[in-house]
Each structure stands twice: as structure tokens, then as C-alpha cells.
Amino acid sequence: MFDITTTELLKDLVTIPSVNPMGATVKNDIYGEKAIAEYIADFFRKLSLDYEIYEVHPGRPNVVATWLVNAKLTILLEAHTDTVDGKNMVIDPFSGKIKNGCLYGRGACDTKSSLAAMLMAMYNLKKHNRYPTYNLVLAAVADEEYGFRGAKALMKTGLKADLAIVGEPTELSIVNAHKGVVRWRITTYGVSVHSAYAERGENAIYAMAAIIHALQDYARELSETKRHPRLGCATLSVGTIHGGTAVNIVPDRCTIEIDRRILPDETLEQAQNELVARLPDDINYEISEPLVWANGLDSTYNASVVQRLQQAAAPICGLRPVTTANYATDAGVYHQAGIPTVVFGPGSIEQAHTSGEFVELQQVETAVKIFEKVCEMEHG
């Protein structure tokens, strides 16, 4: 058995860039999850675990290890391998620098610390000849930060699990409910002419202004009428706008991107139908298929997972708070597939995506112990 510590493993993961290109076409070694997937596959290989590595998009693989022990139940531990970009960081994003008990770098908090904790839990079980009481699946998936394609591809393989823990920075609190997300692109069309003869054209930006006004009314309506007792209101936001080519040309095209945060009981079809119903009928526009969508996480079905995680954590670090999140995660994908799922991991969401991202190493070590305990718990 090879030797590695939690800190060494996390530093290895952080020093391997795995930036999500966020839908853009890029040519740079820092983008994509291929290199980190190969590292994780080698880790599984050294542990003599069965694993599979497969692409969910060119150069962007999932890595999934399976440890079957002929148990009645199967547990899925999942963490994403991609990160947001590190261009504007005030530290070297891929150094894995350690200072004052913290490890710094892009993904240190979101969410390579969760991934390292899950991998180390499996490593410790193997090293000390201990066996999980569940059939254990550990999935390191691609593209959570943009399109959730890794989690969706995992479900398309036919994987069955009885419970799941998705690693995200929750400060070791248990997130049992969160919002989902849908994003669209809307484009309005006009007729381009010289601005000296603007009356002869049709201004696509003016047309978009009418749509934005309708969306603003719809966003206000959502905040007043669609509410969840723990998550608050559904939301809608226009996040980007692009139109025109020059100030002296009437624009023939204008495009916006919309972010809609859906509640756990809302479906994609319902959200889309409601959106289209609010758009003006007299405007020449086109709406894209959803650019991104993921369901919310509903606490109705995951009480047993919360209980097991609480029981595992209590002797290690006390009873953990059960809370909610407004952001979306891969957990929504597994919830939609019928797997009782919670979100849990080291690190603070307030550090995620920041210019000086870090994670407290002691919290990662605590997470390792909790994941080990979960995997070894007796169950009925």
C-alpha cells in the first residue's frame, strides 16, 4: 500500500488545473478535467479498486470507482472535479500553498477538499483492511460548475444507489434542501440600417427592452407568489445583454441570458411554460433550449440520509446543523433520479470562487473521519 496524507492528496488535486470552460471553446491545458481524472483513476488503480473512466464531453471525463461487498444497500459519494477560472485570483491558483493551517488555491474549497476527504476515507479503509457496510460507489464527476453533465451522465449509466452524499463546502453542516436552476438565452431581431435613417430600421435593442420589462414584472411576481417555507422565493435575473455592432448602426440583434432559480417542487417544463407566457406576443424573438438546468433538492425524501450522517458525525464533532442552500448542486440530479441525497463537506461557501480561496485543513481531516464512519455504519 502506498503512503499519502490528506494534505498531500488535497495539494495534488489543487495543483492539477481543472478549470471549467463554461461553454466556451478554449485551447489551454488548464481547461477540462482530463488530467485530474487520470490522477484519480491512478489512485483507484493503486487501491486495487474497480473503476471506470469515460468522457461526458470531449476531454471531460467522469471517474467512478465501485467497491462491492455484497451489502443490501449502496451508498454514492460524489464530488465534482471542475473549478471556476482562477484568472483574477490574488494568489497562485494552482500552488496549493499551505499557511496557518489552511491550503490555498482554486478548488481548494469548492470542491476538491470534499473529493480529497472521500478519497482518503476509501484509502484508510483499504489500508487498514476494513470493509464498508455498504456497497460503495465513489464518483468524481465533470462539469458541475456549468452544466451538471457529469452527474447526468452518471445517472444515464443506470447506476442505482439507496443514498447519496454530494460533496460541497457546507462547513460540515448538512444541506437537505436547495433550489434548482434553469438558464435560457433570448434573442430579439430587427432590421439594420444607418442610424441617420433610423426610422427605416427596426431596433432589436428596443424590442429587447420590452422583453426585459416583462421579465422584471415576472421576477417581482415570483418573489411574491412562489415561496418555499425554508428556501424562500423563486427568482429570475437577467444576467447578460449583448446587442449592436456600432453606435451609428441600428442593431438587428440583441441577446440576453436569464437565470431562473426554481423551487424543489417546480419542473423544467413548468418553469419554461411560465416564462414564455410572460413574454410579449408582438415582439420578434427566439428563446433557446435550456442552456443549463438542474432540479432542486427536496428534504421530503432524504430524512434517513440526514439521520445516518448525524449519527456518524456526532461522536467526531458533535451534532451537525441541518440547513438549506440557495445555490444548485449535483444533488438535484440524484434527487430527480429518486436517490435520497444530501449535500455535505468541508470548507465555507463564502470562500468558493473567491480571489483567495482556501480551506481549513483540520476541517478536511474531520470530514475524512465522518465519511469513514458513514461507510462503516451498521444499517437495517
Please, could you describe this protein's structure?
The chain is built from 9 helices and 18 strands. The chain is of the alpha+beta class. The protein has 2 domains: 6-178 and 296-376, Zn peptidases (Aminopeptidase, 3-Layer(aba) Sandwich), CATH 3.40.630.10; 180-294, Alpha-Beta Plaits (2-Layer Sandwich). Strands 1-2-6-3-7-17 form a 6-stranded mixed β-sheet, with helices on both faces. The longest helix has 22 residues, at 204-225. The two termini are 32 Å apart.
Can you tell me the overall shape?
A: globular
Strand content is 15-25%
- Radius of gyration of CA atoms, rounded to a whole number: 23 Å
The residue ranges in which pLDDT falls below 50 over 5 or more consecutive positions are none
* Quaternary structure state of the chains depicted: single chain
**Tally of individual helices:** 9
Query: CATH superfamily of the largest domain, please?
Result: Zn peptidases
Major sheet size, sense and barrel closure: 6 strands, mixed
> Helices and strands, in N-to-C order?
HHEEEEEHEHEEEHEEEEHEEHEHEEH
Query: What structural class is derived from the secondary structure elements?
Result: alpha+beta
CATH class of the largest domain: Alpha Beta
Largest sheet: spatial strand order? 1-2-6-3-7-17
Average pLDDT score: 96
CATH topology of the largest domain, by name, is: Aminopeptidase
**Named CATH architecture of the largest domain:** 3-Layer(aba) Sandwich
Helical amount: 25-40%
Distance between the termini: 32 Å
